[in-house]
Amino acid sequence: PAPPAADTVRLRLLNEEHHADLRGPTACALIDEGGKKAIHDRLGPDPLRPDDDPDRAWKRISRSRTTIAALLMDQKVVAGIGNVYRAEVLFRHGIDPYRLGKDITRAEWDAMWADLAVLMREGVRKNRIDTVRDEHLPEAMGRPPRVDDHGGEVYVYRRAHLPCHICGGGIRTADLASRNLFWCPACQTR
After folding, report:
1. What is the pTM of this model?
2. pLDDT tens, position by position, 79-121
3. Which of 175, 170, 156 is nearest to 73 (CA)?
C-alpha cells in the first residue's frame, strides 16, 4: 500500500500494484500537445537526451554573471539537473559553486555535460543517484556506507559539516536561490 502522501506531493498516481508521487513542481496540470511543445521549447538542453546540444547551454553560461550553481538549476539553461546532480557535478570537477558562468571554461563545461549525461543515465537505470567514483566508494576507502533516505553514495549532497571523502575538510552548506547548496571549499576552488 502507498504510504500517506507528504505535504510536497502534487500528484499521486496509483493502481493495485504501484504508486508514484510527483513532488515539488509549482504547477501540475493536464495539457495538450501544443502546451507540451510550448513548455519543451522553453527548456534548455537535457543531458539525458543524446541528441540534445550542450552548446545551447554553453552560449548562456559563457555570457552570464550568475553563479554556475544557479545556472545549473535554471531549467531554461539546462533541463533536468536537480539539486543532487548540481552539487555533485560541481564537486567532481572541482568547481566552486559561486564562480560566475562567464568564468567557466569551455573545457570545464564540456566535461561537466559529459559527466552529467553518464551520471543521470546511470541514475535512471539504477533508480538511485550514485556519484562517487569507484576509488572513493565505502569498500575502497574503508568507510561506512552513506545512510540517508535519499539513497546513493555522494560526495557533498546532504553531507553538511561532515568530513570530505577526499581532503577531510568540512562540507559546507548555504542557501542559494531557495535551495540548499553543498560543497567542499578546499576541493572546489574559484
Report:
1. 0.84
2. 999 999 999 999 999 999 999 999 999 999 999 999 999 999 9
3. 175
Q: Alpha-carbon distance 172 to 73, whole Å?
A: 19
Set of cell numbers at residue 34: 501544443
What is the per-residue pLDDT across 47-87, written as a single tens digit (0 to 9) for each?
Answer: 999 999 999 999 999 999 999 999 999 999 999 999 999 99
Ordered domains of the chain (ranges, CATH): 16-183 (1.10.8.50)
Instruction: Report which residue type is found at 56.
Output: R
Angle between helices 106-126 and 54-61 (to 10 degrees): 130
C-alpha radius of gyration, the chain, whole number: 18
The string of DSSP codes covering 109-125 is: HHHHHHHHHHHHHHHHH
Cell of 39: 513548455
